[in-house]
Amino acid sequence: MQLLSIGIIEPIEGFEDRLKLEFDILKDEGLEITLKKLSKSTAVYYYCFVDDSILLEGNYEDLRKMFFHCIANAVSDIIINFWEPKLIKKIIRDNYFYFDTNEQNKIYEFAENILNYNDTCGKQNLLYQIKRKTFVLHKIIDYLNTSSTIILDGFINFRLKDYIGQLEEAVDKAIDEYLMDKEYKEFIKLLKYFVDLQEPKKELVNVVLRGGEFYLFDDKMNLIEKDEGIDMIARENPDVNLDDILISTLINMAPRKIVIHGFKGREKVEVINALYNIFEGRISFCNSCEICIELKPLTTK
Fold first, then answer.
1. Which residue of 14, 38, 248, 266 is most buried, as measured by CB atoms within 10 A?
2. Closest by Cα among 62, 69, 74 to 20
3. Cβ atoms of 186 and 178 closer than 8 Å
């Protein structure tokens, strides 16, 4: 008895092997599936057969549900791992064609990151991919309950509009993040150019990170007083970020060398990255000197 036929227009490498992996699981459960492949016009069809005697021996509905779940598991894997990257790239290509190829590739990377990024722990998390797979899996099972044939390409385009909508939202956010990132890099480049043009006012500045705050010292470890002009701007504009004041102070001094003490790679990552890019070639890190190991309480006058 034929249980299902699966049609594919666009070739998918490894699709047949993925199906057979699920069929091996079914075989262990007592349901042996025979797979036949046939090419028709522009599509390839996979026909799934089961011996009638097996259905007579067991509960047909239970066996059918188990078979459809395995098929949905395989097909949802294929959609998430094979089709999702293609769909994201197509959305970018169709809706944001005015970006060049290199920019589109960067937007794709931002979109992938958004789809799989956990804001809570600040890193990639497969949980979001699993959630999308579960959503697609249930859509496939619902469809198979009413149809004995599924054309994968058409199913994705016409039955997974909510899923594609999620991808479109991710791409929209990716565009915003890409443009902000581009603007940020151009601004950093401008600041770096400004620093390179200046005559250094200090040979060496030690930047000490302690308790989430930065302190600046000269080469003899004397505390560097805040620039009066920058300090006045900070007083008049309480919304000004202290990290921005630090960057502005260092840019104003344009030291030949900056040594950052006490950075553990966790706090203040953004401002450290900004300094590293602005003062490219002038930055070094220290975590083993006396300052870093036995940092005494710091006071300002």
1. 248
2. 74
3. no
Return d(Cα 48, Cα 6) in angstroms, integer: 8
Strand 117-118 and strand 2-8: pairing?
unpaired
126 class by beta-carbon count within 10 Å (0-12 exposed, 13-18 middle, 19+ buried): exposed
Domain boundary assignment for the chain: 2-190, 200-293
Crossing angle of the two packed helices 161-197 and 101-115, in degrees rounded to 10: 120
Helix (H, G, I), strand (E, B) or coil at 36: strand
Confidence band for 18, pLDDT divided at 50, 70 and 90: very high
CA-to-CA dists, residue 168 to 93, 115, 141, 174, angstroms: 12, 11, 24, 10
pLDDT of 69-88, one tens digit each? 999 999 999 999 999 999 99
Output the pTM of the full model: 0.81
Instruction: Specify the CATH number of the domain 200-293.
Output: 3.30.420
| Closest listed residue to residue 281, CA positions, set 250, 264, 260, 257 | 257
In the predicted structure, residue 17 carries a pLDDT above the cut 80: yes
DSSP β-bridge partners for residue 8: 44
Asked if 69 contacts 141 with a C-beta cutoff of 8 angstroms, the reply is yes
CA 46, CA 8: separation in Å to the nearest integer? 8
Number of H helices, E strands in the chain: 12, 10
Token pair, residue 17, equals 């092997």
Binning the chain into helix, strand and coil, the percentages to the nearest 5 are 55, 15, 25
**Residue 252: partners with Cβ closer than 8 Å, 6 or more residues away:** 201, 227, 230
Q: What's the pLDDT score for residue 38?
A: 94
pLDDT tens-digit profile of 170-181?
999 999 999 999
